Predict the structure.
Amino acid sequence: MSEGKAQRIVIIGAGHAGGEAAARLRGLGFSGDLTLIGEERHPPYQRPPLSKKFLSGQLPLDRLLLRPLELYNQEGITLLLGERVIWIDRPLKRVRLSGGREIAYDALILASGAKPRRLPIPGAEKAGVFVLRTIDDVESMRPLFQAGSRLCIIGAGYIGLEAAASARQLGLDVQVLEAAPRPLSRVTSPQVADFFLNLHAQHGVRFELGAQASALLGGARVEGVQLSDGSVLPCDAVLVGVGVKPETELAQQSGLAVEDGILTDDQCRTFDPCIYAIGDCARRPIPLLGRTARLESVHNAIEGAKIAAAAIMDQPPPVLEAPWFWSDQYDVKLTIAGLLDGYDEIVLRGDAAENSFAAFYFKAKTMLAVDAINRPAEYLGTKQLLQRGESLAPEAIRDISQPFKAIMAQARANSAKAH
Ligand code: FAD
């Protein structure tokens, strides 16, 4: 941060990005006032297990926390939980909380995350209709997550499918409704989508694809989902997983630039030099894509926290990692390195029938990303290559006479020669 170092830093949003940013700032030696304000009553925690092991009851709540609660105290981080920031006064550099209290800042980090989209259809507010974003969301649906309950999941993205797997593991009857002709259509290739469709079908999940919910039926409590063709899927509970909206209201109110995310430069700084935005709420230049993007991932939350903390502390920017993501469904671990936007070629290695294969994505013969299903070597190898700005030719990957490790060894040798 130019014009003298900040003495008072306020972070709005005690989620993954906000929690990481506070820890990074102290890690970089920031010794001034550091306040982390969160609307939820929980200290910063990891959301990924909410649709996986926490939902299926295999992980206790305290294992979700990013860091033990006492560390905030020890590091002099003021954690204000159950408090919502309702106003940013940019000229006077202070924020106002819902209770009326005001806190001054020299640097402000917006890490306000995203909110699940609701369905704009009749009955969407009925009891028994849930979204999955917070610990409290999971706790509220637990009573219905019992063997024999009939669950209808609307939306076959990663969260919907992970929830379907967790629900099946608990013995629920699960139907998934998706408007697109296949699951995961926004985020992966037809080949990988079809793999997950088959996987879930093998576990007894029923799919309604290319189908739209037009109303949620029942009395005070939901009893069924009506489709636009008039048919009805009876159920005891509905989980809506149709994506999220970035939480940008405060930024908009205070005149910051917002375009599906708070716009920042590559330092995560908004056009107000004292205000930064990171995580799900922000849109920044992504070198691998050559354009700005708003990413929704743990990797992006951590990366934003590192970048903003370094910028505020006038430190050199951190070395960036290639984007990564993962999804756990039944005994399948999908790991993703890179971003597959705009791919024009896909090469598969391995055997989908054995739940072990990788889909490599290329654009103009340059590697963009990999979806690796139970294939850690392909994931790690591709991540390293992307990080170094290197690529493997599609032909090299297509050559199944060579194990992937041998292909990587050759790539490393070529890279060493070139440097
Ligand atoms: P959040 O974690 O949403 O935190 C934002 C916080 O800000 C919230 O607590 C919110 O209440 C608070 N807030 C908002 N406005 C205010 C305000 N005005 N005042 C005070 N507080 C405010 N990513 C992966 O990489 N891999 C996965 O497998 C994966 N699985 C996921 C599963 C689920 C069920 C969910 C919900 C997400 C998953 N993600 C996964 C995505 C990942 O968790 C998010 O990208 C990440 O949590 C974003 O962090 P964030 O800090 O930007 O936002």
Q: What stands out?
A: The first strand starts at residue 8 and ends at 12. The chain has a mean pLDDT of 95. Residues 166 and 247 are 27 Å apart (CA to CA).
